[in-house]
Specification:
The chain is of the alpha/beta class. The chain contains 30 helices and 10 strands. The protein has a 6-stranded mixed β-sheet, with helices on both faces. The N and C termini lie far apart (122 Å).
């Protein structure tokens, strides 16, 4: 930090002014020589937006989004400024009438009291407008802050998904506050600046009419002070930017310590961690104070020298005018206008300097929220139908772009966000594979080989570097994000929830869902019993990001959302992580049923899920090395052999059938039929189970039905029908048998 400070002060004010004038001369020369359009565009694109343009943008935003609040604030502030600027005129009239009163001139008293009444009225109006302006400013601050924050939130919500992998929401919220604060500060200072301009303009007009030379001197001093402020802002810009990043890092480190309080307590490190947090804050405070002192000391020296010189000049000019004209009122006018012009000119210069610093602060913070070039994607407006379930990945290669956390970026890095794209090593290499409905597909392979990356590309989180991905015959770059989101359900390993009820988190994905539909989705996800245990059922509050639920419950709720949305394509990354074996088998059953009509892809490392999948796709080193049914791939895929054996697959499928269909489906069917025969009215769940048994085990169902008829006849004492003898298959034998019977 100290080194940066020394570097920034190597260039003095005179050097800065010389370079600024040379740059202005070069710009004029370029315009005279009429540069080509291409060079002009390039120059404009590299040129940073100035203070006036930035302030105008903030003014425009406030005008459009706050309406009458902005107009009221500006109106009352302007009226206050006019009343302030008229002070030298009123003082001129008041003091100009004093000699007449002393000499006893007729009508002098009337002029004096009229001037006094005018001054009283001016001060009364000044106080009234000052109060109104203060109230209007407070209202404007609130409405503008809300409008600016809403606009930034909207921009953040439109960011592509990968943006949030490196930028935590808490960090983005901090930058949002920084931008909102900078905009609000600029708006207040620009309104105040306008007020100073009005007073300065009235004072300048007064002084120009009386003493043009003095007025020109004050104007020159104001311009010089403003230029010095610009020089200081440029000199300290990078240092201030680094300090903001440094402060953000310290804030994030301390927040991390608070977040990991259980770990700190487990290691008895409370005092040690408290000391670290305190040292971080003290370090930040010391460096900030040192830089602020150096910056303000330079301002103080400059302004002190200017004020001493100008005050002496004003006193001399006013004294000379009174000696020449003998009019005390002119002394009041020259003195008042000069002092007012100098005071508001100095304040205007300081305010403009602050506005320049605020502009840099706003621009630097806004640059951090620019979506980097690495995450720009091509999107279209094509539509998909519910039948578009086929995914075709053709010769795709991809490596992740390297993105930096916005809170760690320096000013130079923020300004260079659209520079050269840096990437990791290739994750996918000329990969081709197709997915469609009709069966549950498991995508398997060791970690870091491209499984999750492939799923992310299908969802169009990134543009592929080479190759194409089609959904329903349409290339994903022809589809909008909204269309893909409406067509694909994605359940990630890290699930997110709103700090609200279970029902709210389900309905957010399907606003018109009924309670019955939500409970059915919970049943299919194995979450129905959990909901039943909560006193308020679907109204149970789950806490921030689902913290009041266990890990398994969070996973099941995420699966329930997937079942509820009923989209044509379902992609799941480790869907049964943290679930017990029985629940896992139930969910796999639901996924297999879903896969009959939808494209269901499951990224997994679970051997049971691999064994129960209808199809397995093995991804190794960014390529598909095996694709087919599990029992077939055991013979050819070395990876699959390392996970399962043929007997494993058979045993797991048997376990699955027993778990889903029951160990003795005939006995289960008998229980339901006997209860129904006894006059019991079956519930909806029992009717569904009866239907399932009929579809899955027709032979068992028929056997149970026969046994039930036999038992009923025995109770009634009715003889059972005799079995009909089978006729011989040979036609001659059959004929002979028939003849014998007749005889």
């Amino acid at each position: 930090m100290v080194k940066g400070k020394q570097d920034s002060q190597q260039m003095n004010f005179a050097t800065y002014e010389r370079q600024r004038l040379l740059a202005a001369a070069k710009q004029v020369r370029r315009k005279v020589l009429q540069k080509s359009n291409t060079e002009k565009v390039e120059e404009n694109s590299n040129k940073e937006q100035g203070t006036l343009k930035t302030v105008w943008g903030v003014f425009k935003e406030a005008w459009q989004k706050t309406g009458k609040d902005f107009k009221k604030s500006v109106g009352f502030k302007t009226a206050e400024s006019v009343c302030t600027g008229l002070s030298p005129y009123c003082q001129n009239l008041l003091f100009g009438a004093l000699p007449g009163i002393v000499s006893g001139t007729g009508g002098a008293s009337m002029r004096f009291f009229s001037a006094a009444g005018l001054e009283i009225a001016r001060k009364t109006l000044l106080n009234f407008f000052r109060f109104k302006a203060s109230m209007a400013s407070k209202v404007l601050n609130d409405t503008h802050r809300n409008a600016a924050a809403s606009s930034i939130y909207e921009d953040i919500l439109h960011k592509p998904r990968p943006y949030f992998k490196d930028n935590a929401p808490a960090a983005l919220s901090g930058i949002t506050s920084e931008i909102t604060s900078a905009k609000n500060d600029l708006l207040n200072k620009s309104v105040q600046c306008m007020s100073y301009v009005v007073v300065f303009g009235i004072s300048s007009a007064s002084l120009l009419a009386v003493d043009p030379m003095l007025a020109a001197g004050v104007l020159g001093v104001t311009a010089l002070t403003s230029e010095f402020g610009g020089f200081m802002n440029n000199a300290y810009r990078k240092i201030n930017s680094k300090m903001r990043s440094f402060g953000n890092k310290i804030s994030r480190d301390n927040s991390d310590s608070i977040k990991n309080t259980p770990l700190v307590q487990d290691t008895n490190g409370i005092e040690k961690e408290t000391g670290r947090m305190k040292n971080r804050l003290e370090k930040s405070s010391k460096v900030t104070q040192k830089i602020m002192y150096a910056q303000n000391k330079a301002y103080l020296k400059m302004r002190t020298a200017i004020n001493v010189c100008m005050e002496g000049l004003i006193m001399a000019a006013a004294f000379a005018d009174v000696m020449k004209t003998g009019d005390i009122g002119r002394f009041a006018l020259i003195g008042g206008a000069s002092w007012q012009m100098l005071f508001y000119g100095s304040n205007l210069s300081a305010l403009w300097t602050d506005m320049q610093a605020g502009t840099y602060r706003l621009i630097d913070a806004t640059k951090k929220l620019i979506t980097p070039k690495e995450l720009e994607r091509v999107t279209g407006k094509e539509n998909l139908s519910k039948n578009d379930t086929r995914i075709s990945v053709q010769n795709v290669s991809f490596a992740y772009p390297q993105i930096k956390d916005v809170t760690d970026m320096s000013l130079v890095e923020a300004m260079d966000r659209n520079g050269e794209i840096k990437r990791t090593e290739d994750i996918l290499k000329n990969l081709s594979v197709d997915f469609d409905r009709g069966g549950l597909t498991a995508v398997v392979g060791t970690s870091g080989n491209g499984k999750s990356t492939l799923m992310s590309l299908i969802r169009h989180d990134y543009d592929v570097q080479e190759g194409q991905i089609f959904i329903g015959g349409k290339e994903i770059r022809e589809l909008s994000d909204e269309e893909l989101n409406a067509h694909i359900t994605f359940v990630d390993q890290k699930v997110h929830f709103f700090d609200d009820s279970i029902g709210y988190n389900l309905k957010y994905f399907k606003p018109n869902a009924t309670e019955e539909e939500m409970l059915d989705a919970c049943r299919r996800a194995g979450f129905e019993k959990d909901v039943a245990k909560f006193n308020d059922g679907l109204g149970h509050k789950i806490g921030q990001d689902g913290t009041k639920l266990s890990g398994g419950q969070q996973q099941r709720l995420a699966l329930a959302r997937a079942f509820l949305t009923d989209r044509p394509i379902v992609i799941m990354d480790e869907p049964t992580t943290g679930l017990d074996p029985k629940l896992s088998l139930d969910i796999v059953k639901s996924l297999r049923d879903m896969a009959k009509e939808k494209t269901v892809i499951m990224v997994t490392h679970n051997p049971t899920e691999i064994a129960l999948a209808d199809r397995v796709v093995v991804v190794e080193k960014g390529e598909v090395t095996a694709d087919g049914r599990p029992l077939d791939l055991i013979k050819t895929s070395e990876f699959l052999r390392s996970v399962l054996t043929k007997d494993d697959i058979k045993n797991k499928r048997k376990l699955y059938n027993n778990s889903v269909n029951g160990a003795n489906p005939m006995q289960e069917a008998a229980v339901i039929l006997n209860e129904e025969a006894g006059g019991k009215v079956l519930s909806d769940a029992e009717r569904r189970e009866k239907r399932r048994l009929l579809e899955a085990h027709k032979r068992a169902y028929i056997g149970v039905r026969k046994n039930a008829i036999k038992s009923a006849r025995n109770k009634e004492g009715k003889p059972l029908p005799k079995k009909r003898e089978r006729r011989p298959l040979h036609p001659v034998s059959a004929f002979s048998g028939q003849k014998s019977a007749e005889m």
